[in-house]
């Protein structure tokens, strides 16, 4: 048998093996499978390596471990007040107005949390100022989880504060993502360990060598802070200078985050503890968290009801995307979307098309200054379709990092999830769905101010693009199918 025959046999065997894995173990989408098979066929060796590093799904073992360590929200619900079961929610007016949405979120693991106060931040500096105050005022516990926690001016300020509180006896736990913090030396986080805090790295690489991270395609993109179990933050703002508007090229930097005080913190606490238990292989019974003040008795701080959703590659169900689609398809008057990356799938596109054809005012805002050129080219190709469908498209004069969806006059989603396939299926994400007419009106005003700093683009804008740009858009859009 010739070497050529052996090589062809090996390649065919590998392709067949990869096909079995994609179909029966990873259950990838048909279009994704087709794209990978084409790559494996035409670039067999390189394609196989790319698949191992970027394309292979989470192993069944990892999925089992994540599910094993997760705390069932039912364990928490049965023991604390302040979070509603669906039956309890049926007695108030909110359920009558948004029955389908509340039910979908509930069946996706998100319980209605009433009685919250909420504060929206439209800049990193504003959020950082309040976050530092809350850290200084923490009495019992600080749980903090960030995709990016940099060793720069902003990161050092927060780390110094965390170390100080840990030395003073506050229980400080920190989770950082291995890929998001690849430029942050581990000795930076060891400062907290030496001060008495605890640190966990999400999906650490083999032998702690960052170049050997086989889970590079799966990131914990969450930004969660929970203080004393009752004050919580989430949104798009990381702990890094550029998120504070200190990046020369990506200026102005426009972002959004939310601070919740009340029972809504329980859900973000639960997500944090799930991630912590997986990272640290922690078997602490849920009852211990209840006894140690991680879920204190709820008080009424305001009139905002919130449902917090989480999603990740450990599940085949894209929970956040499903809720976004429900929000869009059930909208009656308006849908305003802000996202740095717009790479939706056919289901999401259909929802937007149906909404605008039904007379809903649909607007999408993305940055005019990109941070990732290849993703931005794909974003523009999809926005061309949106403009052709009658959707208003705005380019913000700066870098827009907000991940928000405003619907009608009482619903607002603020979280970590971009409007792209990576966020929907590959990243660990969270979003807070807020039911509030006042917050909705407040953010609608912020959106209107952003429009004044943007310019609307229509079909003619995209048609004027050079042939090379259109060619690259087609190539990068094709590559997006791999994931």
Label this structure with key terms.
3 domains; 483 residues; two-stranded parallel ribbon; Endonuclease, Chain A; alpha/beta; 20 helices
Question: How is this structure best described in words?
Answer:
The protein has 483 residues and is α/β, with parallel strands linked by helices. The chain has helices at residues 3-25, 30-42, 44-55, 60-69, 73-77, 86-89, 93-97, 99-107, 124-137, 153-167, 186-194, 264-280, 286-291, 319-329, 346-357, 373-388, 421-426, 437-452, 459-463, 467-480, and strands at 113-121, 141-146, 171-177, 198-202, 223-227, 231-235, 253-254, 257-261, 304-311, 334-338, 342-343, 361-367, 392-396, 399-400, 404-407, 411-415, 419-420, 429-435, 454-457. The strands form three sheets. The chain has a 15-stranded mixed beta sheet with strand order 4-3-2-5-6-8-1-9-18-16-15-10-12-13-19, with helices on both faces. Strands 7-14 form a two-stranded parallel ribbon. α10 (153-167) links the parallel β2 and β3. The longest helix is centred in the N-terminal third of the chain and has 23 residues, at 3-25. The protein starts with a helix and ends with a helix.
